[in-house]
Amino acid sequence: MIETYHRLVLRDKEGRVVRDTGKVRCRSYVLQFLQLLEGFFSNVTISAKDIAGASTTIHNRLNQGNFYGRTDAGAGVDTHGVLVGTNVGATPESNDNFKIDTQILHSGIGEAGKLNYQATTFVAPRVVGANIDLDVSRAFINETAGTITVKEIVIYCKNTADTKYHLLLRDVVADQAVLSGQTLTVVYTLRTTA
Amino acid sequence: MRKDSKEKANDVQLLLRLEVRDAQGRLISNTGNIKSKSFVIQWLEGVYSIFRGIAFNATDINNAETEINNGGGYGLSSCLWIQAGVDNGTYGIVIGTGTNAVTNTDYRLQTKIAQGAGAGQMSHGAMIFVTTAIVGANVDFVTKRTFTNNSGAQITVNEAGTYTYNAGHVAHPVHCIIRDKLAVGVDVPDKCSLTVYYTWRTTV
User: Fold this and answer.
1) N-to-C CA span, chain B
2) Mind listing the pLDDT tens digit for each residue in A76-103?
3) Which of A152, A193, A158, A174 is nearest to A56 (CA)?
4) For burial by CB atoms within 10 Å, which of A70, A140, B2, B26 has the most?
């Protein structure tokens, strides 16, 4: 079993922790996650529903493998990697979710309602006590004058050959207000235990 | 600091089932789906390499550090293959007779059953996949493989797993991503077949 956790850590301007949810077991995986694995494992070309609701390639056996499943978005890139949203439509988690409900976009100049996306980062798999952990995380800085409330978190992967995006994980989370000047860090931990 | 949540949740489950049939196809035994705790470190190393699109080394079945993912070399998607064909005992679902407990850092089956019809060997069928789909409340991706015992004697299977293949690396390294030690060995009489199912399941 792969246990999966998300953790939200909120820090003030000085970097002091204001709130830490701890690791929360989550129920995140959607259909496209196993479709991506199927593509690699069986070496076939697979189409899956992308974030626009269209059926597009999530893995193409005739292209380099590293074109697919990419979540390593850089700073300022709000198209893939870990993303956050406000879930205005109150969309519940479902096996067939294919997009975030209402994404909070990136802004590097403090535009209202937007967060400054830092790079999606990773801690490579390693033995942690009795487990193997892989961490995927991203920090979001509120540079606006107002409060932004995060209600959903996701991971999108990118097909870099065709520039298509697919949802892999989505979690509706307890409201997390990010005040002006604060930084929210979302950490997903994928864990296996023999 | 808050304590970690112990709330029950659904994850990526891996279900293992072993089914033995006689030469006429009649069912002899069926374990039913067993929840497996079988992922070893190379599995998340493979996921990590996909997420980052990088070449990444992991411990292979020869206990050497080799690329589980070549990060795009070779031009075609050539890593993390498990779609082995008939008589290919190198990768895909594999079985063995070892009884050692599983650890996070296992890098191979303890005693893999080789491809063939000699003593202690079994003929490996092709890997078969059932396309990922929503099945009831779950999303399932089924991988399976049939092994036929033509060795002349009964073989008891005590372990199963999945090996990946990196076709894009000159050395074609093989990595173990799953190893299960069965609580009770499964007997496969001579001339009978064993089908091993690994079902990957997610549930929101």
Assistant:
1) 28
2) 999 999 999 999 999 999 999 999 999 9
3) A158
4) A140
